[in-house]
């Protein structure tokens, strides 16, 4: 049977993790702790009843109970762009897939009037519309349609 350790008065204040109230200490004693193949000397602070046991950060690290990773390898942007180059090219149209659109037939289609575009933005809007049409994102409609929405021009800074 191992001898009962002699408690001495603790000269520090101890708080539980994330708490602001002091833990009531009975005392402190010096001993050695063994975990797997590691043995370390450590001070054990004995708290009054009602609190669980816990191991300090330094002791946990010295015993290799926990390990801390201080550096994380991050790929550079150029490496990621090179690795996933197919994702970052083109528009990304989904071809050869059938999509089912759930449309409520009780909702009446609405055809709204177009909104005026500032005169100085006209050439840029026409250029962008031509680009979107050539890319296959939008298509020109020449006849009447039951549903029409106006475009909203928002210049990026």
UniProtKB/TrEMBL annotation:
<dbReference type="InterPro" id="IPR050951">
    <property type="entry name" value="Retrovirus_Pol_polyprotein"/>
</dbReference>
<protein>
    <submittedName>
        <fullName>Uncharacterized protein</fullName>
    </submittedName>
</protein>
């Amino acid at each position: 049977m191992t001898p009962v350790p002699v408690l001495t008065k603790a000269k520090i204040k101890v708080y539980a993790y994330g708490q602001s109230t002091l833990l009531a200490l009975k005392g402190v004693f010096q001993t050695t702790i063994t975990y797997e193949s590691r043995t370390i000397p450590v001070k054990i602070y004995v708290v009054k009843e009602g609190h669980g046991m816990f191991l300090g950060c330094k002791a946990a690290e010295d015993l290799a109970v926990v390990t801390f990773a201080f550096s994380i390898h991050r790929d550079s942007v150029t490496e990621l762009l090179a690795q996933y180059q197919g994702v970052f090219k083109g528009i990304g149209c989904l071809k050869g897939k059938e999509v089912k659109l759930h449309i409520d037939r009780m909702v009446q289609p609405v055809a709204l009037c177009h909104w005026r575009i500032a005169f100085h933005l006209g050439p840029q809007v026409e250029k962008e519309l031509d680009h979107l049409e050539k890319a296959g994102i939008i298509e020109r409609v020449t006849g009447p349609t039951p549903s029409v929405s106006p475009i909203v021009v928002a210049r990026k800074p």
